[in-house]
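Appendix B. Extra example for self-study. Work through it before the problem class; the solution is given directly after the inputs so you can check yourself.
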Amino acid sequence: MATSPNLYQRVVRITHIYLGPAADRFIARQVENHLHKDPSRMTTDDLEHLIDWIRVAVSLLTDDAEIIEEYVQQLQRLTDHDKHKPNPKDR
Amino acid sequence: MVIDLMGTGVLSAEEERAQANALFDSIGDGAIATDEFGKIKRINPAALAMLGYKEKEVLGKWFPTAIVNVDETGAPLSLIDRPITKAFLLGTTISDRNFFLRKDGTRFPVAVTVSPIIHNDRPIGAIEVFRDISVEMEIDQMKSEFISLASHQLRTPLSAVKTYTHMLMEGYMGDVTPEQKRSLSTIVSAANRMNELISTLLNITRIESGNIAVTPKSVNLIKLCEEAIREVRRSAEEKEIALSFKYTSAASAKTDALIAKEILNNLVSNAIKYTPARGSVTIKLSKRAKEYIISVHDTGFGIPEEARDKIFTKFFRAANVVKRETSGTGLGLYLVKGLAEQLGGTIWFDSEENQGSTFYFSLPN
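Solution. Structure tokens for the complete assembly:
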């Protein structure tokens, strides 16, 4: 399991572009309610499930499908980014 | 292929779909299903009839704009406050009451339940089921009006009962024997109890109909607590209950003194009523960042665990106090909660059965 202590902050940073100051609270609520864990304990393995929920929640806040897709893609890149990052232990 | 729910045999996927459609369409309440993008995928005839739309007018439309949720003033609910959004944010079923706008712009009250649809552990949409509660609301309104009217009508004869009983006791109508005086005194206390009950019913009616007037003024909370204590001191003394008041510093809040006092009187009277003889009741006033907390601690019967989530509901009385204290309507804490909310405060408690309870009441500073 890839653990990234800054993952939550990175998700919030991306979300901030779309939801502004509500981003932190919005993501914290999503993590707590859907992943049932503390936001600081979020891992890249959780991202896919989290993105599913974020997509449906944001789809009820705006009907701009392009914006939603752009936002979701930005979040998905976090998964790819972390997956491709070399693990120092493997060296 | 799946097993037929109706027990008629094995169904093909098409038959299964047709059966699911029939089930959806025959729901008596309104039902709307959305996909994961909030677009309306299905709407049943009951929903169409209530909303005044044709199916083609709403199918495929974005739910928040196609079906408008408004509050009691007619203002649209913010997207984040809509039950369907809450259901997705919290990932759970949400029940709420608000209003829907019909196609012709008129609104009607609804009780709504929304559940996210989860398939293979992924959210794929939501289903919103609702029913028109206009009749229920009218009945509620009529009930409130009836209670209000009945209470007013009861007060007038009660005043006459009290006045003439006092006159009898004071000897205005001839000498009264000590035995007669005791009987008259019982009539007065029964009349006082009935008066309190009428006041409670009237206050509840006012809260429920949204007609309670809140007049905020600068209130010295220490004086307020002292006054409330003075009013109940006699009943505490009768049970030899030690009544004390603790506070740390001067406390002044902008609130409605009458309502705050009503809350406090209720809490302190309850504490005395449900505490056995020679117990103690302590009122504390303290300050937090943006609010004052008044707590009423007693060494009474406490609230059993199974009764705790019902304690602020109307007409509820915990089983352990019903056995010991026959008087009581189960309206006091319901009223107190409603009044506290009118002042922008909250009420909560800690309790342990046979050890006592502490009720806390917060007042915005």
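Self-check: The mean pLDDT of chain B is 88. If your reasoning did not lead you there, revisit section 3.
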